[in-house]
Amino acid sequence: MAHSATRPARRADARQNAEKIVRAAVTCLGRSADASMNDIAREAGVGRVTLYGHFPSREALVEAALIRLLAQGDEVLEAVDLTGDPRDGLRALMESGWLLIAQAASVLQAAQASLPPGRVHELHAKPEQRVHDLIRRGQTEGVFRADVPAELLASVLHHVLHGAATDVATGRLDAADAARFVAEMALAVCVVPPARTGN
């Protein structure tokens, strides 16, 4: 009985250690995209053996950190009301998305440097689908321009968000202005120009 009782305890300890390691990875990579496995182990308060027992490579741990941030971000984006005017929904989505990108910029940088080509894009599939769906609805309702494919519009918005994050990081854009700017850029890109209204 004692032996079987220790097994669940060990599994619980393992889960707690894995959770601590992922949290530490988010913290360390958030400070520096170049954070090492040693940095993360120290932050988590675990040894290298424990760290590598859960995450056999830095790439695996970077991916776990990005997945964690995307899941947290998805909870925020799920709360954004996209049922009304698509223009209002797009503004709210871009402003919320900007805050998430700003918080995750360093982790995203680490992921882009560490993970295989296409993997970061694959992990962003759900938030990107949310943008695509909103744009398509706006096009159907005649609010967003339909002369440009929804996929291309969504791609432009993706670059606007990440470009703003880069400009803030390099000091070319004030972080206090970024949310407003990315929202205005998104509307400028997607909304039917005034001269075309009613066409």
From TrEMBL:
Residues in coiled coil: none
Keyword Transcription among UniProt keywords: yes
An example Gene Ontology molecular-function term: DNA-binding transcription factor activity
Domain HTH tetR-type span(s) in chain numbering: 15-73
Pfam families xrefs: TetR_N
Keyword Cell wall biogenesis/degradation: no
Swiss-Prot/TrEMBL keywords: DNA-binding, Transcription, Transcription regulation
InterPro entries, sorted: Homeodomain-like_sf (IPR009057), HTH-type_TetR-like_transc_reg (IPR050109), HTH_TetR (IPR001647), Tet_transcr_reg_TetR-rel_C_sf (IPR036271)
DNA-binding region boundaries: 36-55
PANTHER family: HTH-TYPE TRANSCRIPTIONAL REGULATOR BETI (PTHR30055:SF234), HTH-TYPE TRANSCRIPTIONAL REGULATOR RUTR (PTHR30055)
Name the UniProt record assigns to this protein: HTH tetR-type domain-containing protein
Organism listed in the record: Phytohabitans rumicis
